[in-house]
Amino acid sequence: MKSKPTSFDIAFRAGVSQSTVSRALRNSPLVNEETRLKVQAIARELNYKVDKNASNLRSQQSSTLALLLFEDPTNDDSLINPFFLSMLGSITKACSDKGYDLLVSFQQMNDDWHAEFEDSNKADGIILLGYGDFVDYEEKLIQLIEQDTRFVRWGAEVESLPIVSIGCDNFHGGYQLTEHVIMNGRKHFAFLGEASSHAPEFFDRYKGHCKALTDNQLSVNQACQIDAISTEDSGYKAALALIESGEPFDAIFGASDLIAIGAMRALQDNGYQVPEQVAVIGFDDIPMASFTFPSLTTAKQNTKLAGELLVDSLIKLIQGEPVKTTLMPTNLIVRKSCGS
Amino acid sequence: MKSKPTSFDIAFRAGVSQSTVSRALRNSPLVNEETRLKVQAIARELNYKVDKNASNLRSQQSSTLALLLFEDPTNDDSLINPFFLSMLGSITKACSDKGYDLLVSFQQMNDDWHAEFEDSNKADGIILLGYGDFVDYEEKLIQLIEQDTRFVRWGAEVESLPIVSIGCDNFHGGYQLTEHVIMNGRKHFAFLGEASSHAPEFFDRYKGHCKALTDNQLSVNQACQIDAISTEDSGYKAALALIESGEPFDAIFGASDLIAIGAMRALQDNGYQVPEQVAVIGFDDIPMASFTFPSLTTAKQNTKLAGELLVDSLIKLIQGEPVKTTLMPTNLIVRKSCGS
DNA sequence: CTGAAAGCGCTTACAG
DNA sequence: CTGAAAGCGCTTACAG
Description:
Chains A, B: GO terms for molecular function: DNA-binding transcription factor activity; transcription cis-regulatory region binding. The structure is a homodimer. The first copy, chain A, is an alpha/beta fold.
């Protein structure tokens, strides 16, 4: 491996000083057009690239963002939630559009977790995606704030903390989905997913769901809210528990598509017809939602826009501009699983 | 934002020299146990983190790998091939297991493409995933070799170049799938996907497919090989073209799951029963393959193992150890779309 | 518009 | 085992 050329090599060949090379390569207006062109030509010829470690060290910024993806440690380690995978895709694209590099890391929530990336100057800021239990997570967030780390997160607004969150309007999404199914004549709903402060997004969906019920003179059956995390397996088990409970139901709201898909399978394995006997709805609109049988009615979270908003917000934060928590609307996607 | 502590701050507080701090933090055996503990305690207290830009600059290595994901520019820009998304997930995990950071970048093949990452010392090596047309891509690979860039790629072996490729045994996978469908009594196959040196992986699958046909005394109908790129849409159109061609067929081999899924939809939209009239098989085993109706018989590429192999191989390459091109076996996953 | 010089925060010979 | 010093390759005041 031949050693890489430095700005001094360029300077020598161009017959100018190294400072001028540095300026020319960054298109500084301070440098003469002719000089600039000559320097750039030589740089291209030698296949010279600025050493990012040196320039970052000197200028104290890295043009790099870090994405920390937390997975629920209880989840089987081979699979990543497809919703997060879509987010990852859109964040990656948004970063390259903005000229930032993206450092990606998977974390377990139980890891010793100190926002290494920003502290070690590898990234200018951090995007947080996912978490296990929100109550545990919140402590970490407080640490980040104390360390003055610049970060944005995907999720529901955290009213108690000065944090920039980008998320969907889970309440309204839950309301809209439920209302749609009510219009189709269903009366006895079950909700599969944790509905507590440990999972604020699910909780908001549940609150919207309940509001739609009471607005339509239907009652909420507490016994039909069964905890589940966002995996197919967990949805399957929750639906099984629902069936065994003996409670009557003609509609299931899965707090996420994965839960809904698992629930649908549990229903079918136990002889229930979907949607004839039981309507099923999910949340997220992951790619496979359109391929299930029957295809899944759900609330679409726009991952493309979400990725762009996360990246834009973080860059503004880094540049010291004010940034606000944003709530994006969801789209009701009507397919076959709810009987209309 | 309070300014970050440096190794000099630690040195001052610990009453030792900055060199000693540097050694202590990297657990150098040269430093006294007691000194080391004291230094580390102070570092923790001040929440000190080594500045990566400085240490990388000095030590000339970054403990960072770059993943370049190329997408077919003809593809709709909102979607990333789910197969690559799985690979991305497993590569990310493999990197963190090995203590490397991962820089992720999406590229368009038509971009000015110079392996910036390694040249600018941001990454020690590069993983290449995907490409548009192999013939164009090959030129880029030659450039990389000329620049002595350390990289590994996902894909079929390139015999003509000294490149480390990690890929699946596409030939055998294609053979096995085809043989399975032949055993179920199908005789007239169509192959949807480009089968030429522009797409070596698809070509290998096609060759395995053809070999299985001739080994079983069936003939290959050239008119039934129709080009398609790895998208649902392209598969849909290719199947339409097949239908319009008037050629007889009772089985379709989609060169990827996405193609097969598109083809299945085209068949169903045109009144064909899958698998009763036409058996359909795919390749990859992307997550949605098990959710299609009917569920898709396919050859599974083990993305978890693939990610680990890519990362391990690249790290060995960086460390100057010999690395060989590896072919991983595929797994035949029999589901409902092939009628057995 | 250009150059000489300082310095970003580390790691690593070198000397003791 | 420890410290003083050099230097990684840039960017950026400062002076002209």
